[in-house]
Amino acid sequence: MSSEIRYLPASALEALLPNADEASSAIGRFYGLKARGDVYLQPKLTLTLGPGHLFQSLCCATIEPPFAICKWIGVSGSNAAAGLPNVNGLAILSDANTGLPLALIDAARLTAVRTAATSLYAARNLAPADARCIAFIGTGVQAQSHLTLFADAFPELREVCILCGHSGCDALAESARAMGLRPVLLKQAQAVVEGADIVISSVPARGGGPFLDASWLKPECFVSAVDLARSWHPASLSNFDLLATDDHDNSAEQQAQRIMPQIGTFEVDLSDLAGGNFRGGGTERQRTAFIFSGFALSDLALAVFFFEIARERNAADPLSATPFPDR
User: Fold this and answer.
1) How far apart are CA 6 and CA 310, in angstroms?
2) Which residues contact 306 (CB under 8 A, 6 or more apart)?
3) Which of 140, 130, 187, 125 is nearest to 162 (CA)?
4) Fewest CB atoms within 10 Å of the CB: 44, 178, 247, 275?
């Protein structure tokens, strides 16, 4: 690989955004590698400074294709009051063979896209294929990124139910209209989710305690709990017929650190799906929850996607043609 380091700020990523098929394929590609034991990684490291105020580092590598990533992000729930994004940071993508850095990538935009892509991969395996209504509890960046990919992936979608009363609600409704979908703004959480085929919950950590009940859901429904299920009453999770996550070990570690609620074990993770080791939940109609805390492999999958397409299109200028002077 070239020794040039490419810089991919948020504006560059916006010009290279994957469609649903590309996003899902990127996730499946790398979780397929993990199913074969071809991924090297460490647990997510979290440094908590206070409620909704933390730093995290995520890192992993694959030998073929030879890529490694380290993502460093800061989360500050008070940033919104200052007009700043809640999530900020950088990801370093490296050549796994030589160790040479290949790209610096805006971590906030990467996180938004990789999270929606991860949800989508799970949904394409576990959600009703003919879903007509998608509901959003949380109306921030994650809601927007999920709506973009899910609207592309589920052609039968017609309606977007949104819990209103929070910033971003009107913008999400406008995005739905622009996609030819009918937004329905509701003030009661139960009314938002009870008729939905797909539910995305992305309530920030500072959003308070749990207020959603899984018993409100249809008998056949898919939930992607981007918020680690913090917004769902723990006792109500027994109403799900199937609990899935991004990675068994990662979720167990996050529960041990009390970052993820004490949910217990999951029936399936994304490596099971990508490796063909899961054949369904055994019932035709089921409530399924995909509860995940973020996994470095998803970051690597989308970072490689952005890097490869940027290189193919020559879409990002190198920081330097000779970043490592002779010693």
Assistant:
1) 9
2) 8, 13, 16, 103, 105, 110
3) 187
4) 178
Q: What is the CA radius of gyration of the chain?
A: 19
Cis peptide before 65 (omega within 30 of 0): yes
Q: Where are the beta strands (DSSP E) in the chain?
A: 6-8, 39-41, 45-50, 53-62, 67-76, 87-95, 101-106, 133-137, 159-163, 182-186, 198-201, 221-225, 242-245, 268-269, 287-291
Alpha-carbon distance of 60 to 116, in angstroms, equals: 20
Q: What share of the chain is helix, strand, coil (3-state, %, to 5)?
A: 35, 25, 40
Residue 24 backbone class (left: φ over 0; alpha: ψ -120 to 50; beta: rest)? alpha
Q: Are 121 and 149 in contact (CB under 8 A)?
A: no
Closest Cα partner for 251 from 281, 221, 195, 293?
Answer: 293
pLDDT at 194 over 90: yes
Phi, psi at 182, each rounded to 5°: -95, 115
